[in-house]
Amino acid sequence: MTHLRLGVGIANLMHLYSPDVVVVGGGLANSFDALMPGIRNRLNLAVMPPFREIPVVAASLSENSGLIGAAIMVFDDLDRNALAVAAKTNGGHSAAPGTGSGVRAT
User: What is the pTM of this model?
Assistant: First the structure.
């Protein structure tokens, strides 16, 4: 029953986003091999023909993929904020302080 619901959900996402690949992560990745035949059967019934060849794969990071993705988003945000602060303190230049590349020749 789970594979049927997952198949319908993945089919809906395929139709909305037209992905090149669908990656199943989190706890579902642990059961992926058992669920995939049923999911693929459901997808073949539920999706339009152009979407039937889209690969559905398990995340290589397994159940830690959500945590790793969240951490990456935090670090990306920190990097953007650091660059914005550096730009303000360097007279509008986006280089980090102390790198020398934000110095203007007068």
Answer: 0.59
